[in-house]
Amino acid sequence: MIRSGMTSVTLRHLSWQRVLHCAAEAGLSGIEWGGDIHVPPGDIELAQRVKNATAAAGLSVLSYGSYYRVGCSLKGTDGFTPLLASAVALEAPVIRVWAGDKGSQEADAAWLQRVAEDTERIVELAAKEEIQVAYEFHGGTLTDSGESAVRLLRQVKSPIRTYWQPSVGLTVSQRLAELEAVLPWLICLHVFHWRDRERLPLAEGEEEWAQYLALLPADDEFSAVLEFVKGDKPEQLRVDAATLHDLLEKKEAAKKPTE
Predict the structure, then answer these.
(1) Where are the alpha helices (DSSP H) in 183-233?
(2) pLDDT digit string (tens) for 45-55?
(3) Beta pairing class for 186-191 and 222-226
(4) Contact at 8 Å (CB) between 185 and 162?
(5) Direct distance between the N- and C-terminal alpha carbons of the chain, in angstroms, rounded to an integer
(6) CA distances for 162 relative to 24, 49, 134, 144, 225, angstroms
(7) 3-class DSSP state for residue 252?
(8) Which residues does 197 contact at the CB level (< 8 Å), separation at least 6?
(9) Which of 9, 36, 35 is nearest to 229 (CA)?
(10) Mean pLDDT calculated for residue range 221-247
(11) pTM assigned to the model
(12) What is the rounded distance in angstroms from the CA atom of residue 204 to the CA atom of residue 209?
């Protein structure tokens, strides 16, 4: 079953209370709370308030969207500890992190190993709290393509997961190939529809997204989380959420009967 949701940074200009209201109003199942503005790392009291309010609204905390750059901590510092504490307070099942700060074309074998080793360290820390760690799928990191993401995912010896989102500038067939490549590690889709970098209503990409969703196994649990909406407007969030729910309902209806 695929759960619908939104990243809180979709509406980063609004308070966390307003984000929660908009998510509930749109009929979404949960929220990925962002660590850059709505639930800053280390503010445990706030994280607990957000967790309680999310549950009271009938929604789930799907994940904690951190901006931790794996492999980039300065010597003698550890930026992961405070965000792990916030994830625990949120009762987030997943922490999203970034696979370094270099694109795959800039990185050498030593950098790949450094990112892999730091990943193993934070996965072990998170596992003690029964939390999973997953990479953002994004340019300027080691997960900037399906091929480079798989290379890193295979390098990591701990149980790491990944998000996926459609890469800008690729064809639908190329994006499908990237998604298929990372499917064994997939935990979440960041859902949006762009033309180059112009934000468009999700309904204009409904046919494209139906193809992406069709690749996902019917019996596994994933989250499909709205990340960008046209104009950053709550009313567009409601419209895109309706499109997302329609896509998920059609995928559910397409399941073959169990013999």
Answers:
(1) 206-214
(2) 999 999 999 99
(3) parallel
(4) yes
(5) 19
(6) 26, 28, 4, 12, 13
(7) helix
(8) 168
(9) 9
(10) 97
(11) 0.95
(12) 10
The torsion region of residue 113 among left (phi > 0), alpha (psi -120 to 50) and beta comes to alpha
Residue range 174-194, pLDDT digits in tens: 999 999 999 999 999 999 999
pLDDT at 236 over 50: yes
Which among 108, 102, 188 has a CA at the least distance from the CA of 142? Answer: 102
Residue 76, pLDDT score = 52
Return the H-helix or E-strand segment holding 195: strand 193-195
Pull the structure tokens for residue 95: 């922490």
- H or E element that contains 33: strand 30-34
CATH superfamily of 2-253: Divalent-metal-dependent TIM barrel enzymes (3.20.20.150)
pLDDT of residue 254: 83
Q: 129, 139, 121, 125: which is closest to 72 by C-alpha?
A: 121
Residue 79: helix, strand or coil by DSSP?
coil
| Closest to 4 (Cα-Cα) out of 53, 50, 59 | 59
Domain ranges of the chain: 2-253
DSSP 95: E
